[in-house]
């Protein structure tokens, strides 16, 4: 393992975890460290809508686990892992619900779950596919460029989590600006790319050769490489699917470490940049006029009071409500102060809700007190001790220098 990338990640985590203003970025870097140490490779299928991503994914997995349709279907991230055939929906509020495969479209179809009104975080599918047997996590993402803006936003968000990418084109459409922009963005995060061209069953060999040559030339320029391997496939007929699948399996088995190191380095740079941006917002918040800062603290106090009032009226589902309150407070802090305030969202398998009301109210009180106390502390709200102020400013300046140094070394 390239100890430089791992050590830089550990060093970054140590710096970030020592400052409450960067708790969200610290958690993200911790996840990068865990993936690198455990050699967990995530392979994502990405591309424009209606390129046949879900159909090709089913062909690669040799199991029709993903719903497909004539209109854009995938609207939520769908992760597929090795195991006995099963499906579960993970909601943003922490609830985990087992579901039948026949019901999947209810949760990941734009037609049935428009703008993700159900609050789905992701859908996890388990299947005994040999493609996944060595520990790969396979991800089908929503297509970019459709009428549904939420789908594009979800795809752009999740591309940051991908280690390797199957970038899918199709012969019924030349590479367009949407795909070019998406590829440029994905380049900043993924460590490996596999370029597949779908729907090859609808053109003759001469046209296919011309299309492949055209794509290869353009992609080499975009990726800044001399040569790219293209995989012509037909998800419908199965043409070329086995070749693509075997290549990815062999590559990920042989080069998992290199793929993860490349991916981690890119993601670590992004996490550091995000932390530096966070610190910039933090400075702006700290330097607000007292009147403006008073108004924002008054708003957060009203939010806290509203949450406590609602908590008193709940009679069941306390763990779920606690998670929802964490999400609400985190969003409010981001809106008011431009800061990511990280909370761990407890995973709640359906039916496993055991907290009583007394404990719930105690947890809510602690949640609210901790938030107000932390904001007071890190924003130096009404702090009159000059030594405390100077020490805080020095710590922030030191952290900024440390992060910039690591970023320049990557």
Automatic annotation (TrEMBL):
Protein name per Swiss-Prot or TrEMBL: Dynamin N-terminal domain-containing protein
Gene3D superfamilies per the UniProt record, alphabetical: P-loop containing nucleotide triphosphate hydrolases
Q: Specify the species.
A: Emergencia timonensis
The record's section on InterPro entries has: Dynamin_N, P-loop_NTPase, TRAFAC_Dynamin-like_GTPase
Q: Which residues form the Dynamin N-terminal domain?
A: 44-199
- Which PANTHER family would you find in this protein's record? SARCALUMENIN (PTHR43681:SF1), TRANSMEMBRANE GTPASE FZO (PTHR43681)
From which domain of life does this come?
Answer: Bacteria
Q: Name one Pfam family in it.
A: Dynamin_N
């Amino acid at each position: 393992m390239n100890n430089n990338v791992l050590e830089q990640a550990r060093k970054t985590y140590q710096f970030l975890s020592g400052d409450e203003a960067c708790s969200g970025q610290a958690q993200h870097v911790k996840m990068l460290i865990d993936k690198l140490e455990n050699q967990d490779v995530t392979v994502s299928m990405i591309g424009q809508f209606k390129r046949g991503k879900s159909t090709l994914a089913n062909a690669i997995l040799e199991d029709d686990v993903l719903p497909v349709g004539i209109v854009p279907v995938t609207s939520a991230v769908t992760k597929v892992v090795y195991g006995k055939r099963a499906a579960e929906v993970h909601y943003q509020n922490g609830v985990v619900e087992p579901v039948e495969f026949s019901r999947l479209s209810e949760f990941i179809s734009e037609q049935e779950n428009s703008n993700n009104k159900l609050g789905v975080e992701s859908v996890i599918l388990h299947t005994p596919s040999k493609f996944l047997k060595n520990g790969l996590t396979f991800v089908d993402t929503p297509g970019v460029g459709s009428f549904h803006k939420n789908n594009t936003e979800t795809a752009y968000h999740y591309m940051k989590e991908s280690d390797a990418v199957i970038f899918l084109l199709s012969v019924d459409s030349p590479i367009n600006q949407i795909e070019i922009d998406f590829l440029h963005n994905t380049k900043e995060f993924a460590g490996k790319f596999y370029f597949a061209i779908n729907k090859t069953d609808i053109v003759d060999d001469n046209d296919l050769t011309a299309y492949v040559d055209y794509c290869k030339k353009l992609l080499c320029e975009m990726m800044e490489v001399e040569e790219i391997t293209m995989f012509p496939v037909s998800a419908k007929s199965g043409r070329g699917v086995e070749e693509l699948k075997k290549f990815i399996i062999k590559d990920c088995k042989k080069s998992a470490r290199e793929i993860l190191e490349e991916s981690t380095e890119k993601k670590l740079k992004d996490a550091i940049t995000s932390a530096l941006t966070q610190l910039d917002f933090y400075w702006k918040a700290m330097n607000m006029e007292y009147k403006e800062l008073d108004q924002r603290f008054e708003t957060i106090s009203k939010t806290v009071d509203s949450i406590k009032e609602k908590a008193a009226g709940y009679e069941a589902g306390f763990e779920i409500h606690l998670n929802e309150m964490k999400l609400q407070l985190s969003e409010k802090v981001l809106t008011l102060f431009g800061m990511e305030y990280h909370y761990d969202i407890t995973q709640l398998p359906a039916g496993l809700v055991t907290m009583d009301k007394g404990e719930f109210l105690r947890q809510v009180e602690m949640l609210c007190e901790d938030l107000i106390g932390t904001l007071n502390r890190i924003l130096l709200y009404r702090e009159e001790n000059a030594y405390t102020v100077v020490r805080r400013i020095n710590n922030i300046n030191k952290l900024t220098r440390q992060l910039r140094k690591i970023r320049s070394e990557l």
